[in-house]
Structures are given as C-alpha cells and as structure tokens.
Amino acid sequence: MAAAAASSIASSRACPAFQSEGKGIASSSSAFLQRGGAQRFLGGGVCVRRCKGFGSRVKSLGTCALSQMVATRGAEVEFETKVFTKEKVTLGGKDEFIVRGGRHLFEKLPEAFKGIKQIGVLGWGSQGPAQAQNLRDSLEAVKSDIVVKIGLRKGSKSAADARAAGFTEENGTLGDVIETVAGSDLVLLLISDAAQADNFREIFAALKPKAILGLSHGFLLGHLESIGEKFPKDISVIAVCPKGMGPSVRRLYVQGKEVNGAGINASFAVHQDVDGRATDVALGWSVALGSPFTFVTTLEDEYKSDIYGERGILLGAVHGLVEALYRRYTGNGMSEEAAYKNTVESVTGTISKTISSKGMVSLYRSLSDEGKKEFEAAFCASYYPAMDVLYEIYDEVSSGNEIRSVVLAGRRFSARGGLPAFPMGTIDQTHMWKVGEKVRAARPEGDLGPLHPFTAGVYVAVMMAQIEILRNKGHSYSEMVNESIIEAVDSLNPFMHARGVSFMVDNCSTTARLGSRKWAPRFDYILTQQAFVSVDAGAPLDKELFDKFLSDPVHQAMQVCSELRPTVDISVTATADYVRQELRH
After folding, report:
1. Among all residues, which ones are annotated catalytic?
2. Which of 5, 4, 27, 23 lies closest to 276 in space, CA to CA?
3. What are φ and ψ of residue 246, in 5° steps?
4. Among candidate residues 1, 510, 488, the one with its CA nearest the CA of residue 264
5. Are the C-beta atoms of 493 and 459 separated by less than 8 Å?
6. 11 and 19 in contact (C-beta within 8 Å)?
7. What is the pLDDT of residue 575?
8. CA-based nearest residue to 481, from 504, 463, 459, 497
9. 527-530, long-range: CB within 8 Å, 24+ apart, which pairs?
10. Is 481 exposed, middle or buried (0-12, 13-18, 19+ CB in 10 A)?
11. pLDDT tens, residue by residue, 107-145
C-alpha cells in the first residue's frame, strides 16, 4: 500500500515515546533530526516532512523505535535509500520523490535483498502469478540464488497453473502455505482480502522473527484496525502496490524485455521496520516487478485510495455509467450495436488512449465545436451527482464499513449456519453484454471505437470528481493520478477493450468484484435520475466548474507521470487469459 506525521497523529496511534517521555525506547537505526525548524524522523529509510509541535520534548527523546511509528499520510512521507536513486518530481505544484525502475537496475537486487534467501509468494489469484514470475525472472537475470516459492493451500486448483509456470514441488518452489511462510525471509501475502482476514493469525504465527511481511494492498491494515488487532512487533511490514491488475503487471513486464522500463507503476510503503532494511527491500521488490517508477505512500492511504478507486472510475463507476449511457442512447433511437460502440468501446478505446497519451484537456480540445458543447453539458451535469456517490464511497471505506462488508461477503461464499453458499454470479449474460460479444467479434483489428462527446464528458466528469475527493482528503498527486487515471487508462481499460467491461467485472479481485456490484447501480441510477434529466431539461452550464476543470493542476501532474511511463502501450489480445479458477469449466 513510514514514519510519523506531526500533530495530526491520533494519540492512540502515536509512538509510545511521545506518551512516555522516551523511557525504555531505543533503536540504533532511528533518529530525529532538525532541519529548517521542523523535526524530521529518520529510520529504516523513511521520515515525515512536517513534525511540528513536539518542540523540546522531541529533541530530548534522542532515538525512537521505527517499528512503533505509523505515518498518517503518504503526502508527508519522505524516504532514504542506500541502494537506489531517489528523484524529485513536481506534481500539481508540490514536490514528491520517486524511484525510477528499469532492467539495468536488476543488478542492484542482490544488494537490496541482502539477508533474504527465500521469497514466499502466497496465493495464485490476480497478483500472485505475475509477481512470482516477474520476481523469479528478474533474479535469474542477475544469477541470484534467492528462491521464489509459491505457497498454496492443500488441494488448491491453482497448483496446476503454478506448476505450468515452472513452480514445482520437485524443484522446491511450490509448497503448502504455512510451510512456505515458515521458510521465507520475505513473505508476500497475495491471497484474497477476505482470506487474509480469516487466516492472518495463523500466518503471523508462522513468520520468522525479523521476517518481512509484504503486502500489495493495505486492506489487512484496515481489517486489523477494525477489530483492534496489530501486526506482530518483531517483523517488518512493507507494501508494494502495482497500479494495475496482475495480468497487466506480467504482460508489460514481458513487453519490457523489448523496451526497457515497460511495466506498471507502483506505490510502496514501510509500515514497520525492525532492522533498517525495509525501504530498500520494498524498492527492490518494486524494481523486480518492472515498475517504471515507484512513489511512496502509507498503508492507510493506500487501502483508502485503492478500495475507493476500484469502486469508482476503475471499475464500479465505469460499469454503471456505460450501462446508463447505453440505455440512454438506445432509448433515443440508436441501434444496439452503435450504442455499445459509443459507450463501452468509446470509453475503453479512443477515450482511454487519448487520455493516456495526451490528457483529458486534449481529449476535449480534439472535439468539434458541436462536440465540445456536448462534452461540456455532460461534464457539468454529471460532476456533482458522481461526486455525491464518490464521497459516500470514501466515507464507507475510511470508516471501515466497506472492509467489513467484504469480509462478511467472503464468508457467505460458503455454506454456514444452515444457510446455503452464495458465491457471486456473473453479469455477462445480460443483453447489453451479449451485444458486446457481437461487436467485438466484428471489430477490425486495432479499432479503438468512436469518440462520442457526451460519453467522454460523463467519463471525465466522474474521473475528475474522484480526483477531487482524494485531493480534499489529503492524498498525494502521485496517488491521485495513478489510482484515478493511469490505472484506468493504461491497465484496466485495455483489458476491458479486449474482453469487455463485463469480463473484467466477473474476473477481477474478489474485493473489486464485490465493490463493482454494490456501487455500479448507484452510479447508473444517479446519472440517469439527475445528470441526464438536467441535460434534457436544458439546465445552464456551470461555467466556473468547467473553467476549473480546464486549469486543474492534476493535468500537469498527469503530464509529468506520462513522461515517466514506458514508451510501449500494453498489448492485450482478444483471447487474453484472465479467468478466475472457480469460473473455469
């Protein structure tokens, strides 16, 4: 999905040293430093910019255990690395620090992973296959003897796929979950969120002292906080969170063999660091996955932005808005095939490609004068209704309600207490998605679909409303851009264009699938009942709102991030394999 922010830290989460005048606290790798009148915490490579308000009390502490420190906001975290090069970028007028990736950095992996003999990868769902193979291939490229081992539950249907990818019991790279945890120095917990919630105690108990627990999502932190639990104190906890689904992580890594730097951006976080290695291990992990650039966050910011984003423009909102637009267009006399092309194909093809390469404003400016008017009307009418739902989603995520909902839903997938199992069904059998199958079957190779101005206006309005909520809640521009734009247009939407939005809704992570089913109808209804009604009634445009869109700082941030992205677009075929095991026949 760190260190401590200043006075914004809640007392219940502050370092014990702040509550005990430093008694009994010691760490050889941590220290507060004074710079420019503000206290700054350094340890294990991470710190926070604005530690004001502690005054002489902080100065008297001397040292403090980093494993006790938890930053509240990713925008406040700085980091130091002994292995990789940190680079400053200015996004939306604010300075942030990143680490660029590339295959030329693979030679640094043995140093970054110093002390690690085995990396255990738990799970073979969305991220597991991609991360395990990328790590293995990157380490083999520099002839490292670090073993990458897959841990699966006994009888897992995924074992056959893992073996087909070269992970086998015979060569010591495939085993039982707990056996793998106990024998690994770095454990990547990539099982489903619901499974993490049900099995974390057993996994924690099997970890070696001073092992490093790696997450690719901050969900577990949110769950632990909701039930009053914490990570074990004698382990480091880090996160590397690719801003795309697993198949995209693997597909672009493979393409990166031809174009250095091809990959999916990632965020990283250091939540606990018991021995000072955590930051460089996290950055090494990200580089090994093929991330073009890696930005810093916290586990808390990560899970809030990630769960929120996938319920918004990444999946739930796009699902809801294309269904609302499809009904609108067919109701106004457009043929079913044309309506599908001007909704789904338009969003996942031309609109996404243009935003990815040129940005949202260029998308608008590419339209005719009449098209611009349609875009403006759709944008202004859709922005606040979409924000209404997005605001609610963020509150549900940050309050823990959405996390509890996911955990409870996961338990309903199996028969319990005399009630039958209720696994998720699919959405791809409804009429609209059947029309989509016909459209894709007849689609010329390379066809990105039409650019429909009204569709573009609605889509961009939802995207901008999502960004504004994140900005208001204090997230960094790196997080805003990656969670709301790049992950959509560079990772998820290309797969949707190849296989359909319904295919993605039916085959992504369990948490995302649940979120899409829950929130897509809300976007559908509010756009239909408020935005489209407003347009049809000829409501005047909110000129001030649209002018703010045109001048929003996020466009500059997106431009910088685009310049950091690889020069290769993801290549996804119509037969791209991304079918969940339980859906295979």
Report:
1. 217
2. 27
3. -50, -50
4. 488
5. no
6. yes
7. 56
8. 463
9. 527/320, 527/321, 527/324, 527/325, 527/382, 527/385, 527/386, 527/458, 528/324, 528/327, 528/328, 530/381, 530/385
10. buried
11. 999 999 999 999 999 999 889 999 999 999 999 999 999
CB burial string 251-280: b at 16+ within 10 A, e below? bbbbbbeeebbbbbbbbbbbbbbbebbbbb
Bridge partners (DSSP) of residue 47 are 78
Is the pTM of the predicted complex or chain greater than 0.85? no
At 79, list the tokens.
């980091």
- Amino acid, res. 550: L
Provide the sign of the torsion angle of the four alpha carbons 233, 235, 240, 241, taken in this order. Answer: negative
**Mean pLDDT over each residue of the chain, to the nearest integer:** 85
> Taking Cα atoms as reference points, which of 140, 148, 102, 141 lies closest to residue 124?
148
Residues 6+ apart with CB under 8 A from 334: 342
**What are the angstrom distances between the C-alpha of 260 and each of 102, 228, 482, 574?**
6, 44, 20, 25
Nearest to 221 by CA among 298, 121, 274: 298
Q: Is residue 582 exposed (0-12), middle (13-18) or buried (19+ Cβ within 10 Å)?
A: exposed
- Say which residue the tokens 């490093």 belong to: 212
Tokens 């611009």 identify what position?
A: 372
Rounded to 5 degrees, what angle do the CA atoms 443, 569, 456 make?
60
Per-residue pLDDT at 565: 73
Radius of gyration of the chain from its Cα atoms, rounded to whole angstroms:
24
**How crowded is residue 202: how many other Cβ atoms within 10 Å of its Cβ?**
11
Cβ proximity of 68 and 23 under 8 Å: no
Quick check: 63 and 27 in contact, CB under 8 A?
A: yes
Full DSSP string of 360-383: HHHHHHTS-HHHHHHHHHHHHHHH
DSSP 583: G
Let me know: does 70 contact 2? Beta carbons within 8 Å.
yes
Residues in the chain: 585
The SS3 call for residue 260 is: coil
